[in-house]
Amino acid sequence: MERLTVSQERVLSFIIACQKNHGSPPTIREIALHFGYRSLNNVRQHLRLIERKGYIRLIQGKARGVEVVVGLDMDSGGRGIQVPLVGSVPAGKPITAIENREDSITLDQNLFKGPGLFTLRVQGESMSGIGILDGDIAIIRQQQAAESGDIVVALIDGEATLKRYIQQNGSIIFRAENPGFSDITIPADQGEVTIAGKLIGIIRKV
Amino acid sequence: MERLTVSQERVLSFIIACQKNHGSPPTIREIALHFGYRSLNNVRQHLRLIERKGYIRLIQGKARGVEVVVGLDMDSGGRGIQVPLVGSVPAGKPITAIENREDSITLDQNLFKGPGLFTLRVQGESMSGIGILDGDIAIIRQQQAAESGDIVVALIDGEATLKRYIQQNGSIIFRAENPGFSDITIPADQGEVTIAGKLIGIIRKV
DNA sequence: TTGAATACTGTCCATTTGTACAGTATAATG
DNA sequence: CATTATACTGTACAAATGGACAGTATTCAA
Q: Which of A124, A120, A156 is nearest to A137 (CA)?
């Protein structure tokens, strides 16, 4: 994991201290006040960089919308990483802005390394051909681009679906791994293809 | 301490759950949304009463300004549970005594509750018909008995295999969920059937 | 019956808070 | 030297949020 700068580390440890002491992370203004920063954007910049390095997750538009993903002291007992379980993925918005987070799930961080992980409950049997069943929890790494053959979370008609992503002479095909479902083909000229992330694992409770 | 009403207790436990899952308490609107209340004032009323009974403290004017003073039961453990990943399952010995543990894996303890959990790497395609593939990590709860229909880790000829356990007029059938594999039938009189545990989940890394 | 406590709906407003935009400064790097 | 990443200042705005006011309904006990 990429290392934090001194300033960034100070900010992160203040966030962690706030959570310990008050049960909730600080606002941007509270951080600025604590360090004597006169600019909010300075704090935002720090938060963005800390997020990009995978230590925290920013939730767009929410008050105190920062979740600490990885503490400073590392291992700290659990070898687990907490990732959000989202109910659905609305189009357009980045994953970090998803409102309807139901819960969070602990993953083994040796198995699934961050940042940008989230989980999604699989609906339907469209991927049953490769052993992904209705009700499974899909583990997704957030990314916009994908390679042909990847299983991705695609936003089609504003709805999030798990499909195999295939590039074929310019067109893009979203293929369900189930004979009962047909391909969704996006012609080469038609631009709008949104990918929310790539499947990197699943969890099933039987 | 004065007791909470049913509605108040529901609200408080939601607040605690939010703090556990997201690291910050919910806003009034998030509480209202979660319970389907159409009035914010209703939630505020609840919060005021919960505060007056001493369970929480409200910080005026601050977003997510609620501190939980006293939890409902506060198990407060880490949300991860570590369970061994065993390479093979020798007959006779209890799982806790297994020598050849390769590694340990962190599970979400909300999803998979102990005790007696261990994990096993699935070898072969014998259960691919129900979405359990070669290389998957099977999550097993240690138990000797099983009900007909359970997926179990059975010790057959000293080898651990994942099979569906079926009781049929006295006989026991271990069935692979794959047309290419045939049943293993243990006649009624032949006693020696050892079950190491029951499948309660899987994890796959793609 | 009366009254108090609880459980709600609905609307409006002021504050808190996140976010965007427009900059400056410094250090490291090629 | 130009470029990039980081570390800041300062202003403005829209959304999120808490808080107040005005009600209604139900339960429960006096």
A: A120
- Strand D: list positions under 7 Å from protein Cβ: 6-12, 15-23
A21-48 pLDDT tens trace: 788 999 999 999 888 899 999 999 999 9
Lowest mean pLDDT among B19-23, B148-152, B172-176: B19-23
**Residue A104 is among the residues annotated as catalytic for this protein:** no
Helix, strand, coil: what percent of chain A each, to 5?
20, 35, 45
Show which residues on chain A lie within 8 Å of chain B, measured between beta carbons: 19, 22-25, 27, 63-64, 67-68, 77-80, 82, 84, 101, 103-112, 128, 130-133, 136, 151, 199-206
**pLDDT of B100 higher than 50:** no
Terminal-residue alpha carbon distance, chain A: 34
**What are the tokens at B23?**
């690291």
Q: Could you check whether the bond before residue A187 is cis, i.e. omega within 30 degrees of 0?
A: no
Q: Which residue has the higher pLDDT, A184 or A114?
A: A184
Contact yes or no for A177/A130 (Cβ under 8 A):
yes
Tokens found for residue B139: 């999550």
The Cα of B67 is separated from the nearest Cα of chain A by a number of Å equal to 6
Q: Which residue of B has its CA nearest to A127?
A: B131
Dihedral sign of CA atoms A28, A31, A33, A37 in order: negative
Query: Cβ B108–A103 below 8 Å, yes or no?
Result: no
Contact status, residue A132 vs residue A174, Cβ threshold 8 Å: no
Cα separation, A43 vs A27, whole angstroms = 10
Beta strands B184-186 and A101-108 are: unpaired
Kindly indicate the confidence band of residue A63, based on its pLDDT and cuts at 50, 70 and 90: very high
Q: What is the sign, positive or negative, of the torsion defined by CA atoms of A105, A109, A113, A116?
A: positive
Segment A86-127, tens digit of pLDDT:
764 443 344 433 334 456 788 887 788 766 788 888 888 889
Gap from A37 CA to D9 C1', in Å? 9
